[in-house]
Amino acid sequence: MAIAAKGLRSISVDGHSYLWLVKGNDGYIDLIICDKSREGQLLRTSFHYYQTLLPTQAGGYRIVPGSQFVITPAVVKEVILHGLAHGWTPFAKGEPMGVDIEETCDAVQHHLHKKYCIE
């Protein structure tokens, strides 16, 4: 299954080239990864925005600047390694593989906790 080229970024992990795409969603950030040919199985996961909201005097909320989670190449690398370790086959055709990164990938959890103090 292929994905569109618009917005794709590249990364190399263990000598292989991959492409990744981040899409904002209501309440979540979607991450989609494929091999550079865009012909193999997709790897999909989602992250919460992890934004800190403070109450305002008007009764609403405002976002604390700098508190929104950003998917970096380091996070993408950990997701790729996790997917490969759990059966993702990026060079073979197949249905997209979804992984719950936030609950199952210790390396990404460690990265998130270290950078954003998430418990």
Describe this structure in words.
With 119 residues, this protein is α+β, with helices and mostly antiparallel strands. The longest helix has 13 residues, at 73-85. α1 packs antiparallel against α3. It has one domain (9-116). Helix content is 24%, strand content 30%. It contains three helices and seven strands; from the N terminus they run ββββββαβαα. The strands form two sheets. It has a five-stranded mixed beta sheet with strand order 1-2-3-4-7. The N and C termini lie far apart (35 Å). β2 and β3 (28-35) form a beta hairpin. It is elongated and about 55 Å long. The protein has helices spanning 73-85, 101-104, 106-116, and strands spanning 9-13, 16-24, 28-35, 43-48, 53-55, 61-63, 97-98.
Order of strands across the widest beta sheet? Answer: 1-2-3-4-7
- Poorly predicted spans: none
Q: Could you say which overall geometry the principal axes of the C-alpha atoms support? A: elongated
- Average predicted local confidence, pLDDT: 81
Count of separate DSSP helical elements: 3
Could you state the order of secondary-structure elements as H and E? EEEEEEHEHH
The percent range for strand residues is 25-35%
Query: Could you tell me how far the N terminus lies from the C terminus, measured between alpha carbons in angstroms?
Result: 35 Å
Number of domains: 1
Tell me the helix content: 10-25%
The Rg value, from CA coordinates, equals: 16 Å
Class by helix and strand content? alpha+beta
Q: Quick one: how many beta strands?
A: 7
- How is the main sheet built? 5 strands, mixed
